[in-house]
Design brief:
Length: 341
Amino acid sequence: MIYAVLVLGGIGLTMGLFLAFASKKFEVEIDPNVEKIMDVLPGANCGACGFPGCGGYAEAVALEGADPTLCAPGGAQVVNDIAAIMGGEGADPNAVKQVARVKCQGDNSKTTKIYDLDTEMKTCATSTLYFGGDKSCWYGCLGYGDCVKVCPADAIEINARGIAVINEEKCISCTKCVKECPKNIIEMMPENQKVTVLCSSKDKGAQARKSCTVACIACGMCVKACPVKVKDADGNIINAVTVKNNVAKIDSDLCINCGLCSMKCPTNAIVNEIKEVKKAEVIEEKCIGCTACARVCPVACIEGAVKEKHKVDQEKCIGCGLCFDKCKFSAIKMNVTEVRK
């Protein structure tokens, strides 16, 4: 009995010593920068960076010189942390978070079902295989939640009316939902773009309206209402809003969030989610009456002749800020007059 115990103990000791030796002999040294980068990454393992998880990205940055700005969930903070570890430039202080938005409002109350999807596995991808989907609008959200299943942040839900809704505060900008949507109607947009065309239909006006009551009908009223006028590369005057392939599109780089296009849209396809309502106010002691502000105002709400103190009609003002940007004498201020829920 004692002999057997001694033999087993000896075997155990021998194996332990062998494993200790092997662990030291065959130990894989990890670059300390890899571990440091792993510590600052969010650990979402979403793959938005294009590498296999946070570990793969940390190794690529530390050992292969990969772009340190690819972690969408981590944002500017992670970029700055990696820059501190590896050296180099930090994040652009003016960078705006990108969030996913569903470009469709065609829920069950605004569209109709053209058939019942009779299958055990009800998914958007499956529905798309049958005549492009079971909704009257071929371009609309099908509401079976393929995007919900792939979201690593639980930022998406299918609401009671059968359409995907994204919580922008939870969105980590991983773009998984964008890639998963078989209708290609989820798009990444700047978080500060508050006026959005929430329609993806490319049908002509009459057909689009027949398919969905809130569809863009390409009437062009939004284009006419847009106060932003700039020249493109060919010298043509363009607006922040354009209509192409029978649907309106807002250029986030040009849009000033004035909301005029939303006000003019006859079908409510353009949604205004501006929470803080601002109004311009002239600072009389600084105003020299140059009329520059009045000339750029898209709603003619600034009164006053040349060399006279100007005044803003608060009822007409839409808070676009064009006058504020135009005034060279800092004679205009923007006041928050209302905060919407």
